[in-house]
Write the structure tokens for this entry.
Amino acid sequence: MRVQGELAPAWSTLLADLTVAAEPDGTTLVSGELADQAALHGLLAAIRDLGLSLISVETVAIPRSASGARG
């Protein structure tokens, strides 16, 4: 996910312990693996509740071998 503004890495604790990295263009990339759709909706709600402006959300498929055995 990309949000407007440069957030410090400490914001990770407020954003589901995902990686928070400020980008040179003045935005912040929030990345990592979420357990399921409910976790995604929780993260989106947290972004809203914190008053952050969501710019984009991108889904990246994780190869089954890299993510472990999932049912």
